Fold this sequence. Notes:
Helices cover 38% and strands 10% of the residues. The protein has helices at residues 2-16, 76-92, 99-109, 112-134, 174-202, 216-231, 237-260, 346-363, 369-378, 398-407, 413-422, 430-433, 441-450, 458-461, 468-471, 493-496, and strands spanning 20-26, 141-147, 207-210, 212-213, 266-270, 293-300, 303-304, 317-320, 324-327, 340-343, 381-382, 394-395, 539-540. Helix 5 (174-202) runs parallel beside helix 7, helix 6 crosses helix 7 and helix 9 packs across helix 10 (398-407).
Amino acid sequence: MLRLLIISILFWIPQLFGATTIAIIDTGFDLDHEFLKPKILKQETDEEAVNPTLKEFSGWQFHDNTHLKSAVIKDQSILQEILLYRSLRAKGHGEGLSLSEFEWFKKKSADKDFMKHVKSFKKHSHGTFVAGIALREGEGINLFPIRGLHISTPVVAVDDPSNEGVTNLTSKTPEEKFKESIRNSQNRVIRKFSKITRYLSLNGVDIVNASYGITYKNMATRIRENYLQLTGKEIEGTRLQREIAEYFRNIMERTSKVINKYPRMLFVFSAGNSGLDNDKYPHYPSKIKLPNTISVGAMNGDYLASFSNFGKDHVDIGAPGVAILSIVPGVYSTDGKELYSPSSGTSMAAPYISNLAAQILNINPALKPLQVKTIIMETGEVKDYLRSKLHSASIADNQKAIKAALLSKDMPLDQAIALARSGLLPMEDSISMGIAPAVDASILQKKVMDSIPRDITPGELDEIQTTSEESSLLLGPEINKPDNSAPPASVPKDVQKKPSDQVPSSQIEEQSPPPSGVLPTSSSPAEPQSPQIQDSELSPSSP
């Protein structure tokens, strides 16, 4: 009992001294990275000693980061091409690409082998990207990493007793097998989320960042292919719609019950990168709407990014999500220096909000999750064209949110927010606030472009004969503002279909506009696959 008390006190010391802890459920973290390491509360083997009297976590592996001990891209020339490719994507959203840059980018985008490397690199580095953004600004913020995605052995281990709820399908009819496979998939998703959230709660976590999700189209494809695999028939369109709706209804309802058990934690969800209306085409878990949840869409400057999900009722606020500079796992650095790369997606927007929430809590630890959420939502910069897209119709405003947090220590929250929004009270200087000042956008843009390897020049790799038709493909830095969505990327339309990391490595490619009322059935037999729906549909929300 004494040992348990000592361990509990050690884990709560950061909270007692005003340090806020952000848990990040993702693909794994570079625990040895010089930037992250001082902020990480636990190391790889700590889970064995966290709470030895709690047998419920026996056999559960939350922190297997051994995959980050070696690079998945070992060829330095390919790695530099990947970094250049990612940097040009970022540049395409800004001042635009030159003709030679665009042609090189287009050529690489059509190279299937190269794109496999790009996706592999992204999958390997996603958790580290997200962690870097979660620590982008402010002092006294700790990270609590949870590797819950993309591991060969799922979070639930072989000896975990909860596996007993998974039914054997061998003795059932095809229809029974199909229905049971759906239930098994739902149970796996809920069991994993429930186990992780309880573990986080016991370790004093304040904010949970979930930059992942199950998409509407991904689930439609999986259900359709699973039905064909098990029954030998195409599923009828109306039945497919019904199964999709029931799948999401089930996991949303059950996950909501789990979250309601932990009202002290604030859950920040990425809205997803399908470019769909989350009110109509659900994305899990971001469609969950509770007092202690925030769903975050990605902004491209002042406009909603073309890939970002939206939803007047179920996507709460927008945050920067295009060409966001963050750190790369240290295994890719050849000279020991920190390596940076830009990323785009709602995966990047969510940790931006998690970071802001942590700063607010550090200023006023007495605030409850709903109050933190209220500050973020009500101090945002309102845009009329976002009224039909986001619940708050606004983009997060760090300075006003922080000002409201400071004022909330001495006055009622509604008055603090009103005064912070009024602009009548000047912001205190960053030294007295104890936080790092925001980085100017132009500085970030320069860092992105400086990260492009200098020994690779697109023009040198592919000489282009410019014609009058080809020259019309180029767009300059000027953009045309759309009515309700992001300004077009500075590349032709055929490339805009896959903007900036558009497709997560483990999910089906998403296309806009939204799917029709009845999804079409497969035109050809699906490739052989496991007869069960696997929980690998939990994919990072990075396009």
